[in-house]
Amino acid sequence: MLDAGTATYRAGRYLQTPTLDIFLTHAHLDHVIGLTYLFDVLRVHPLERVTVHGEAAKLAAIDQHLFAELLFPQKPPYQSRPIEQNLPLAKGGRLTYFHLEHPGGVIGYRLDWSGHSLAYITDTTAAADAEYVAKIGGVDLLVHECYFPDAQAAWAKKTGHSCTTAVAEVARQADVKRLVLVHLNPLATGGDPIGLNVARAIFPATEIGMDLMEVEF
After folding, report:
1. Those residues with Cβ within 8 angstroms of residue 37's Cβ, 6 or more apart along the chain or in another chain
2. In order of start, what are the domains of the chain with their CATH numbers?
3. pTM listed for this prediction
4. Residue 142 φ then ψ, to 5°
5. Could you please report the per-residue DSSP string of 56-123?
6. Tens of pLDDT along the chain (217 residues)?
């Protein structure tokens, strides 16, 4: 599982093995608050092992602050493990990570198996010339944050997030096969609040990620 946001309570329906590995991009609350939901997941679906991977400093911050006695006094039974480069995955896959620009620091992930690949980029300011673009080249599926529409590009830069045109240009520059936009502003309104038509004009194979969406690639 990539990150542990508020949908972590749904993890049980997708479990296929007796173990669960969660890979964190960073320790901001909207990406880790779901760790507190693991008690419910494990009560319904007992597992042999749960491992949370991430940068060592971020894992320590979670232990110290998220599970502070006055906030959430009982830590779920998971192991913390500093992230490793070229980490083997099930079914012959391999995970690599790379650093992204965002306040506090973030890492992105690339997961490769024989015949298909995925990149997960969240909480960064997209740019076609960003260093991470070379790391995601040619992936079958790029899942990329797009919190703001182009009209709010200044806010994207100020807060360390992305806007529509820049994300689409990243997908085109990286020559990915498919782009799914996630981490959209939940307060955005209107039939096309992020400008999907703008993204598709640059990179036609663009979709907006929806709750409970399942993607085959």
Report:
1. 4, 8, 9
2. 1-83 (no CATH), 84-210 (3.60.15.10)
3. 0.96
4. -110, 120
5. HHHHHHIIIIIT-TTT--S--S-EEEE--TTEE-GGG-EEEEEEE-STT-EEEEEEEETTEEEEEE-S
6. 999 999 999 999 999 999 999 999 999 999 999 999 999 999 999 999 999 999 999 999 999 999 999 999 999 999 999 999 999 999 999 999 999 999 999 999 999 999 999 999 999 999 999 999 999 999 999 999 999 999 999 999 999 999 999 999 999 999 999 999 999 998 887 778 899 999 999 999 999 999 999 998 8
